[in-house]
Amino acid sequence: MKAHDGIYLDGAWRPAAGQDVIEVLNPADEQIIGRVPAAGPEDVDAAVRAARAALPAWAATPPAERAARLTALRDVLAARKDEIAETVTAELGSPLPFSQAVHAAVPIAVAGSYAELAATHSFEEKVGNSVVHLEPVGVVGAITPWNYPLHQIVAKAAPALAAGCTVVLKPAEDTPLVAQLFAEAVHEAGFPAGVFNLVTGLGPVAGQALAEHPGVDLVSFTGSTAVGRQVAATAAAAIKKVALELGGKSANVILPSADLARAVNVGVANVMSNSGQTCSAWTRMLVHRERYDEAVELAATAAAKYGDRIGPVVNAKQQARVRGYIEQGVAEGARLVAGGTETPHERGWFVSPTVFADVTPEMTIAQEEIFGPVLSILRYEDEEDALRIANGTVYGLAGAVWAGEEAEAVAFARRMDTGQVDINGGRFNPLAPFGGYKQSGVGRELGAHGLAEFLQTKSLQF
């Protein structure tokens, strides 16, 4: 798609206040593919004012009508799914088949789920002599990341719109083109002016201005835990509600009774997916000591197959970050069994699929989120040791458990301090709540639980 040279404000594309621009680069070849405005506080203020002005009418719009607009949005996105996939491939570097199957298809499904929820959700209930009424929280400031750019936009904007909120979106500066495409789809779907607004810009400028704006009632942020702390602190000054989906260091626990080959192969695929740029990736593989060597050999063989199958990481800074962690893993005594810091291509920000063995729980690569195609394999002595290691980080976003019997895996999963656990390779469910424990965030996305984040409660006594 051709980049817009303006911001989407109050139902139209308008020039930004300043002349600064952001150059969008293709991570695979480092070439410029577009330029978008670097919006500043003045632009953010105008967008928030438009959203506030549109709020009363949109909040009063019957849920069935909001559902109709969301259905139209889903249909527009579905009609443009090929363009979505091509855009994400260009600005994120994701291989086209993955962009088609995940970056385009999942947001379309999520948009459809909120169209249905808007039509069927109960926004009122009788409790004794009270009527409990659910109302939109107000103006939502949505700040989204680059790793799943359209999915994260839809996971925030769709439930907010379903709830009757109005939205100002600040997308990641690395992937703003698909955000512009989403704004086009909102416009085509017939949403009233001001209900959705888009400001492209830098996080420390436009993102900060949005988080601290007094006209924003809720800040929904997805990104690193470090930036999430800043967003929460900024919002706290105004006692503003936040929803934070942050980092992860998820454990893939393979119990002795599991099908080891399947668990390892699926686990490696999970880590390499999206070039490792997935907050919920199972980046720690936990294997019983008696099967450890076999698992390491299987993982190294599996990782080698991904050399030409994954795309680059998003930018040069991220490439350097991931390489730094690989170097630190080696320095701390982990054994490199696949990949490393050698660049697999002359151009582009690629990182080799990497697997470490002999990783111990206290190592940096076992504690910190790397956000690249890097897997750490840890050994455990017994089930209690596995649980201690699995729960032994500041994160708690996702995880996996494998066992010969489903009940055995479920019993272990119930004791994990994490928000979502896949049992024996369970499939992603766009209706299930997604979010973390501990420093992986506050609140939930997707399904009815995601809708609840954008609602507030009022009780009327009779």
Automatic annotation (TrEMBL):
It comes from the Bacteria. The active site is at E245. Keywords: Oxidoreductase. Residues 13-459 form the Aldehyde dehydrogenase domain. InterPro entries: Ald_DH/histidinol_DH (IPR016161), Ald_DH_C (IPR016163), Ald_DH_CS_GLU (IPR029510), Ald_DH_N (IPR016162), Aldehyde_DH_dom (IPR015590). SUPFAM superfamilies: ALDH-like. It holds the Pfam family Aldedh. Gene3D superfamilies: Aldehyde Dehydrogenase, Chain A, domain 1, Aldehyde Dehydrogenase, Chain A, domain 2. Belongs to the aldehyde dehydrogenase family. This is Aldehyde dehydrogenase family protein. It comes from Streptomyces bobili.
